[in-house]
Amino acid sequence: MKADIRKIAVFVEETHREMGQGVAPPTRKAAAVAVIANPFAGVYAENLDLLMQIGEELGGLLGQRCVAALGIAPGQAESYGKAAMVGEAGELEHAAAILHPRLGAPLRAAVERGAALVPSGKKMGGPGQPLDIPLGHKDAAFVRSHFDGMVVQLNDAPRAGEIMVAVAVTDSGRPLARVGGLTKDQITGTDGLR
């Protein structure tokens, strides 16, 4: 593995009640976070291919950890997202190199299919700062009930020379979703939009 991983953390969030209403079955989200050494910390590099390769490794690894944490079959995953936070000795483009060119394909394999774009967020930050992971339906971007997010944070990451990389997967949409639009039973999944 090309990624120099210091730690991996996995979070599962279940919502059983919202605004005094029961949520049955509970909505569930999982996030898997890897804290890795930034091979380009403190230096400018034109070629960021190494980070792209690391993203490819982490897409599958973190996606599989999320599916396992939810205790579901890969095909039961409904939405996904990705995010990265670069420590102060790095640059925002390091997060982009991890998230965009190659992370998506292995994440899609981990959740079976994934016709829609994987929502993503990137930022610079330091230890203890929250990282927001945007979420959207894996097969149809216009399913409003699945426009959501998950927040993760680690008290000791990212350090200056690190990158915190996160993937989130759900087995449902938001609790009590009711803003209309395309519903998950109306998905055709042919273009990633509907």
What are the defining features of this structure?
alpha+beta, single chain, 194 residues, 60s Ribosomal Protein L30, Chain: A, 3 helices
Please give the structural blueprint.
Layout: E1 5-18, E2 21-37, H1 49-70, E3 79-86, H2 92-99, H3 104-110, E4 120-124, E5 131-137, E6 148-152, E7 162-170
Parallel strand pairs: 3-4
Antiparallel strand pairs: 1-2, 2-7, 3-5, 3-7, 5-6
Helix pairs in contact: 1-2, 1-3
Structurally, the number of domains stands at 1
Q: Roughly what fraction of the amino acids lie in strands?
A: 25-35%
Report the principal-axis shape: globular
- Head-to-tail CA distance between termini: 36 Å
What's the architecture in CATH terms? 2-Layer Sandwich
What's the tally of helices?
A: 3
Note poorly predicted spans. Answer: none
The succession of helices and strands, N to C, reads: EEHEHHEEEE
Helix proportion of residues, in percent? 10-25%
Round the Cα radius of gyration to an integer and report it: 16 Å
The average pLDDT score comes to 97
Helix and strand content put the structural class at alpha+beta
Q: CATH homologous superfamily, by name?
A: BB2672
Q: How many DSSP E strands? A: 7
Report the top-level CATH class.
Alpha Beta
Biggest sheet overview: 7 strands, mixed
